[in-house]
Design a protein that fits this description.
Helices cover about 30% and strands about 20% of the residues. The mean pLDDT is about 95. Helix 3 links the parallel strand 1 and strand 2. The protein is α/β, with parallel strands linked by helices. The protein binds S-adenosylmethionine. The site of S-adenosylmethionine has 21 residues, from strand 2 and helix 7.
């Protein structure tokens, strides 16, 4: 998702109390950021924030960090947070960064779960390393997830999903469960919170793939 540049985005992000301005300074200190010892779950490529905010509302004893590369997209998530529905949440923070640098922001064991939702497919083979489920990214996640930490991935792009399953195998990450049709899988769909893209593509009839993998 790449919205047109919104000039005021930088200013809003700079001023917002829940955007972490120098995320590298918080490495190893996320418990202090939230002021409690609750587990930290992150969503990489949060987009407009629907999933993250609804998850935070449904799970007040989990701390959620939403990571998004583009300020104009993050602005939309912040605007959603600032509505009556979400503005009282204490368990949400936002970071504007490229997830390639995720190890600079979280220490080993600091993250209990990573969510990737409808990640960009990067269809050209020469761009495969940029896919958020590539072995290169799995190696980064390995450095921040705790033992038993989970990686959850949803996409309607079956080619990307199959690639991702292969990458898990190559990297030696155990697969806890997977489905090629989440919305018709009673067990895996329990408590499912839809993302913006999930709503859009499933309403067109596209099945949603999902896996849950365990940090190796
Ligand atoms: N997760 C949302 C959803 O399901 O509705 C948005 C999906 S959108 C296709 C992918 C999002 O991931 C975009 O907002 C994009 O800017 C962000 N993104 C892609 N690569 C990223 C990276 N390396 N670091 C941080 N964000 C990234």
């Amino acid at each position: 998702m790449r919205l047109r540049n919104i000039p005021r985005a930088e200013g809003v992000i700079r001023e917002h109390r829940f955007v972490i301005k120098r995320p590298e300074d918080q490495k190893g200190c996320w418990k202090q950021v939230f002021g409690n010892r609750n587990p930290v779950y992150i969503e990489i490529g949060m987009g407009k924030g629907r999933f993250l905010l609804n998850m935070a509302k449904a799970h007040p004893n989990i701390n959620f960090v939403g990571i998004e590369r583009y300020s104009s997209v993050l602005l939309r998530a912040i605007e959603k947070f600032d509505t009556e529905e979400f503005c009282e949440l204490k368990n949400v923070r936002f970071v504007c960064m490229d997830a390639r640098n995720v190890e600079d922001v979280f220490a080993q064991d600091e993250v209990s779960r990573i969510y990737l939702n409808f990640s960009d497919p990067w269809p050209k083979a020469r761009h495969a390393r940029r896919r958020l489920t590539s072995v290169e990214f799995l190696a980064r996640y390995e450095k921040i997830l705790c033992e038993g930490g989970l990686l959850e991935f949803k996409t309607d792009n079956t080619e990307l999903f199959r690639f991702s399953l292969e990458q898990l195998e190559e990297a030696g990450w155990p697969l806890e469960c997977f489905t090629f049709d989440l919305h018709h899988n009673e067990v895996m769909n329990q408590g499912n919170i839809m993302t913006e893209y999930e709503e859009k593509f499933s309403s067109k009839g596209n099945p949603v793939n999902k896996f849950i993998a365990v940090r190796k």
